[in-house]
Fold this protein.
Amino acid sequence: MVKPSSERWVYALLIYTACVWGANVVMLKSMTSYFAIVPLSSLRMWVAFFCIAAICRIGGQRVVCLGRTQLGWVAAAAALMIYAHQLMLSQGLAWSTATNGALILSLNPVLSVLLGAALFSERLNRARLAGVALGLVGAAVVVLNRSSADLRFTGMGDALLFASMLVYVAAGACIRRVIDQLHPMVIGYYMHLIGAVMLTAHAAFTPSFREPASWFPSAWAWLLILFSGLFSTAIGSLAWNYGISRLGLGRTSMFINLLPISGLLFAVAFLDEDIRASHLIGFVCVLSGTWLAVKPNRPVPSASAVS
């Protein structure tokens, strides 16, 4: 069992991840005005890979060779989370709305909790289910009451967003398969290397790939990529993998519910959106639901202790 003090450290890392991923949405919105979607994703993943490689070296983490089964699960996680999720999410948002995207991605904790219970025997009790439901309601309140909210059915765009959420959950299950055998840094190292190669191979078939000017639009654009690649993609992914290793798939996924809050706060700061009274209700629901879902289960007293 993870010690409470150690769990608080994991919670802090996952809260950081939710905050920086919320900021990353704002940065991505800016970066897509400079780069095409596939080359942009490729650049971000290469930056993240080199950052993770540097973190491993500085931290003294040896990058071990993977066995065939381990490589299969890590490659599957890379194909799902880094390649397919990135492209489906970007294209889905282009064809749908940010409101639809935020609501659909809010289903991630529900499916992750159920998948963790079904595949990995992660404990599922009433408090955890109540936390999942409360977090989902809170996320919906935050998203639907944003000043830029635009909820409408868009067909293929919504289908891609739903598919991006499914592959992300599936990738988490792949990581869970090998998290007891490999250090989270090693998993992150190989995932981003494989994912970056996949995205680069795809980007090679896009017109902008062969135009040198498209790779150097401005110093500001590259500064955004470096910031996003290091603090969001690299450190955020390592923290997420570490969370899965310590808390399990279901409890870690609950921190996804914090993304609408962090996204709203950064949108208020940089995109001139407004905070409304209803947002406070959503904040309380999200925070209460997350606490219910991630708090440690109380140990069941043994018969000898009772007697």
Q: What stands out?
A: The chain has a mean pLDDT of 79.
